[in-house]
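New to this. Please check this record:
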Amino acid sequence: MDEVSNLLFRKLINNECSSEEIDEIIALLAMNDDKSVFDDLILAQLTQRVNSVDLSEDVRLALNERFKNIVNADYNQPFYPIIRKKSSLLTMLRISAVAAAIMVIFAIALLFNKTSGINQKLIHQTAKDAAPGKDAAVLTLANGRKIILNESANGELAKQAGIRITKAADGKLIYHIDNTNTTSAKASELYNTISTPRGGQYQVNLPDGSQVWLNSASSIKFPMLFTTVGRRNIRLTGEAYFEVAKDKKRPFVVTTDKQSIEVLGTHFDVSSYDDDAFTRTTLLEGTVKITAGVHTSVLKPGQQADVSASISVSNVDTEIAVAWKNGYFHFDDEKLESVMKKISRWYDLDVEYKDPSLKNELFAAYSTRFANVSKLLKLMNQVGDMSFELDGKTILISRKK
């Protein structure tokens, strides 16, 4: 890191860098030919804390490539870039957290560093390990027929009331309307359900063109065809990310046990698991109206609403909420109980706390979702005073002695 002066580096570690100095360090690291691990560690952390819209295209692309080299160092898995162009500005996270978070990134880089002399094109599950989740879901048709989507061949899967359901080459489920004149009346009364198991995720294109990404242990219920007037109603359990097709005449409504969300066309994430204390909605683009009992609230991009007895709204980093959809775990001072629920759903494992007070400990980390659980637990064991051990299908958590 010859290009980064000792003064700038000391200021970085001491949390004294101005936003301009942070930008200078990012540009230097992104373009530096010396791909040292330490450069990449700092780079990976800083790039989560800046507004990517302000970065030039060449810097942004270089940052993506540098982070890709860290994450994909020792196994063949798809890369999801840490830096993307966004349609809305994100507030810069507090610079004071950089130095502490670098230690977490350091653990991640060690975790994914290439193992010398070992060919790891495939990741094998062992007795002391668990493979990550995968694309897996079941489609239940209106007549009760069930189709296991991850075991079905590409092409047409079913046809009902003039609606064809196909599976694309990338696994995505797509609904095709053959003839709206003959299908509307009957198809709008036929409901399909797509459900993912623990350790599964899936993407579907709804009949109106809206796209949905389902997280683990989740389901959506929807009509095979939305009527030309009225609402486009969806029922959700678990978590899903929505990119809703715009239609001013037909509001898109997502209903969960605790709330309903009404939109015209927008991008948002909803998490509504039965074992969570609240339902959480995060808005990335557009506007949504949330109704929970007698309470209502309208969200703007960059806001998040938690619904329990009332509605609580806050400004957040939306990247954290949709990290799962982009292939990452991203925890930022999140309670360990919440962290472990997400991990257990994805790996289909149980969790046991030797010390129940650990549930309230705050935890921060950033990692791919596509590594075996042993690698993730190795990372987590390097952070904080908690110990994580896999015993069969259970993750045992205790306090380090």
About this structure: The two ends are 37 Å apart (CA to CA). The CA atoms of residues 107 and 382 lie 7 Å apart. The mean pLDDT is 78. The domain at 328-399 is CATH 3.55.50.30 (Phage tail protein beta-alpha-beta fold).
